[in-house]
Every structure is written in structure tokens, then in C-alpha cells.
Write a structure and sequence with these properties.
Blueprint lengths: L2 E18 L4 E14 L4 E6 L10 H16 L7 H10 L5 H18 L4 H4 L6 E3 L2 E3 L4 H13 L4 E5 L7 H12 L4 E5 L6 H13 L4 E5 L7 H10 L4 E3 L6 H10 L4 E5 H4 L2 H14 L3 E4 L5 H13 L3 E5 L2 H4 L5 E3 L2 E3 L2 E3 L8 E4 L3 E2 L2
Parallel strand pairs: 5-6, 6-7, 7-8, 8-9, 9-10, 10-11, 11-12
Antiparallel strand pairs: 1-2, 1-17, 2-3, 4-15, 13-16, 14-15
């Protein structure tokens, strides 16, 4: 199975409601789609969201990395030479993790199709079902309480609450959300780097003193402030998860060696795909640090790939793969079935994707 060409396009998927965090506000998913074609007629699918505020990868940057570097290094290569192919992908350009992730998942898709096995089984997984949380965007407390009630009515028992916009409101936000959610709902929060270390400790401990019962906080401080992250971890009653601090296995090792976080959030778009995510998961296994498998605001192609990884690794104990259920429609044929909080993988080879509707191709 040799790679003959790569086609690029875009998809646009509207959201149910605007997605708001401390870093950005989004009304629709506008992602790059990668199709890797082969001489056997098989196609591997990948997806890259432009999230410049987080990864630095804009639409132009993703297309430039693909057209100027990545595509020319993989066309003509044999999918069966899988390890070398993935190493070539990672060495052909520095950074540009989203473009690499899109190609990485498409290659895993093809390798699974080559040997007629689902990717999660190829990675050693025995389960095909996981449970995700759902995200509540940062807004005024009353609106967040209403959104929480909608999520509970949809059957979610774990919600992730965005905070950090005007931190003085964060206690009121969480108080309103907890009142709407009731005592039996897990609440995890995501500050998206919005707080200072001292501010984070003060807010988090006040939340727990008020009985808000926060499961953990994601990335309370700036991503590269490892010392600040450690400061919060050592002083907060709330467990701390590193997210934007972890773009590579080297980042993960450093944070775990420092004891700078209690948990690690793995995202394919940050680390460059399944190949590198597996390295982070292995490092976490060595240190005994549980992981969450998360996503950017993505459609089902790339989230589907993350589901395969989540089903394969026991060190991944928490799931934040709600991108597709935040969308008002699904253009992807096949792949994982998202039934609100329950995500189920079919027993189809590769990533199980049969096609994507509405792609606007560049060629």
C-alpha cells in the first residue's frame, strides 16, 4: 500500500451554542481535512483545527506545513514501513503539531486498514466504549447555570466548566453551576492559563472551603510557567492538571519529575498525533500519573482518532472528547458513535471513517 497523493480541504460545522474560554470565542468548527490516498484505493482521514491561541497553528500555517514540507516527504512511501514513515513525518519540520497530527492519524487509519484491524485494537485496547464530560462555556453565572441544567438533562454526569474571564466572577460562576448541577455531578474546571499562581491558590482553596467540590483544575497558570504550576499543585486543595504545559513527552517528563502537576492532559493537536501521544502515556505509566484524553474544538475526524487512543490505554482515566456533541451537525460518515456522554467505536478497520460530507477541496 503506497501513498500516491494527499488531498486537502476544509469543513465548516456550526456549534449548538458559542464556545467561550479565557482564550477565545468560537461559533463554528472550521478545520483542515487531510485525505491520504493509496495505490490500493484506500484513503486515510485526518483533521487539524486552527487554534492559534493555543498551538500557534493558524489555517495558513497548517496548509504551509502540509504543502511545503509534510506531503512531499510522505508521497511515494509504503504504509507498511510505518515506524520510518512516522519518524519522517516528525522530523521533516519542527513544531506545527496540528498539521503533523492530521497526517499521523490518517497514517494510523491506513495502517489499520492494511491489516484489517481497528486502531484501538492495534494499540492493544480491549474496550470500545468510553464516557466523556461536556464543556460549559464561560459566561455570566446565570447563563452558566442554565447551560449546566441543559447538560444534566442531556444525561451528563461530569461537566467541565470554563473559568478565567474576569476571575473575580469565578467563585460566583462555580457556585451557580454547583447549585444547578446538584451534589452528584462531577465538576472539573479549566482556567486556560488565566490566573497567576497566588491567585489560583486563593480561588481554588476558597472554592473548596465553600463546598463546591471541584474534581480538578486544568492549567490554572501560563503554560510555560512550570514553577508556577508546581506552586499551585503544592498549595491547592484541588488537584491540578497540566494541559497547555504539555506539548511533548519532554514536557511531560519535566512536569512529572518536578511534581508540578497531579494529572496530565494529552491532546493530539498539542503533541502531533497518536505516535507522540503514546510516548506521553508511557511516561505517565512510569510515574503513575493518570491522564485525561482531551481535544480542541474539533469535529469528529480527529476526536474519533483520540477515542481510539483512549480505548487503548488504561493510564487514560478521564475523557474530555465532547467536540462532536457541541456541534449541531456531523458531516463524518462512520467512525465513533457519539450518543451524548457515551462514545462507542465500531469494529471497522483503521479509524472506521467512510467519508466526509461537505469538504471544500483546495484542488
Amino acid at each position: 500500500m503506497k501513498i500516491t497523493k494527499v488531498r486537502l480541504g476544509t469543513i465548516s460545522v456550526p456549534l449548538r451554542v458559542p464556545f467561550k474560554t479565557a482564550l477565545r470565542s468560537v461559533n463554528s468548527v472550521e478545520d483542515i481535512i487531510v485525505e491520504i490516498h493509496t495505490d490500493t484505493g484506500h484513503i486515510g482521514y485526518g483533521e487539524a483545527p486552527p487554534t492559534g491561541a493555543i498551538t500557534g497553528d493558524t489555517t495558513g500555517a497548517i496548509l504551509g506545513a502540509l504543502n511545503d514540507h509534510i506531503i512531499k516527504t510522505i508521497v511515494g512511501k509504503d504504509v507498511d514501513d510505518f515506524e520510518n514513515l512516522l519518524q519522517t513525518l516528525n522530523k521533516c519540520i519542527v513544531h506545527n503539531s496540528s498539521a503533523k497530527a492530521a497526517v499521523d492519524m490518517a497514517l494510523y487509519d491506513l495502517y489499520g486498514q492494511l491489516y484489517n484491524i481497528p486502531v484501538y485494537k492495534m494499540l492493544g485496547g480491549g474496550k470500545n466504549k468510553i464516557i466523556t464530560d461536556i464543556t460549559i462555556s464561560v459566561n455570566d453565572p446565570d447563563e452558566m447555570a442554565r447551560d449546566t441544567k441543559v447538560a444534566i438533562d442531556r444525561g451528563y454526569d461530569t461537566i467541565k466548566v470554563k473559568v478565567g474571564v474576569n476571575p473575580d466572577l469565578d467563585i460566583a460562576r462555580l457556585t451557580a453551576v454547583r447549585a444547578a448541577a446538584g451534589p452528584n455531578t462531577l465538576i472539573r474546571i479549566d482556567a486556560n492559563q488565566a490566573w497567576t499562581p497566588k491567585q489560583a491558590v486563593k480561588l481554588l482553596n476558597k472554592m473548596q472551603d465553600k463546598g463546591l467540590d471541584i474534581e480538578f483544575v486544568e492549567q490554572p497558570v501560563k503554560g510555560r510557567d512550570f514553577e508556577g504550576l508546581k506552586y499551585v499543585t503544592e498549595r491547592s486543595y484541588v488537584p491540578v492538571m497540566a494541559d497547555e504545559s504539555v506539548f511533548s513527552v519532554e514536557d511531560a517528563f519535566k512536569i512529572m519529575q518536578m511534581g508540578a502537576a497531579d494529572l496530565i492532559n494529552i491532546k493530539l493537536m498539542k503533541c502531533g498525533g497518536i505516535y507522540n501521544a503514546l510516548k506521553i502515556a508511557s511516561a505517565a505509566e512510569v510515574y503513575g500519573v493518570e491522564c485525561m484524553l482531551g481535544c480542541m474544538l474539533e469535529a469528529k475526524v480527529s476526536v474519533n482518532a483520540a477515542v481510539h487512543l483512549a480505548c487503548a490505554k488504561n493510564i487514560i482515566t478521564k475523557i474530555d472528547l465532547d467536540g462532536p456533541v457541541l456541534c449541531s451537525e456531523d458531516p463524518v460518515l462512520g467512525g465513533a458513535v457519539f450518543n451524548e456522554k457515551e462514545i462507542t467505536l465500531p469494529n471497522a478497520p483503521g479509524l472506521g471513517i467512510k467519508g466526509i460530507e461537505g469538504i471544500r477541496y483546495f484542488d
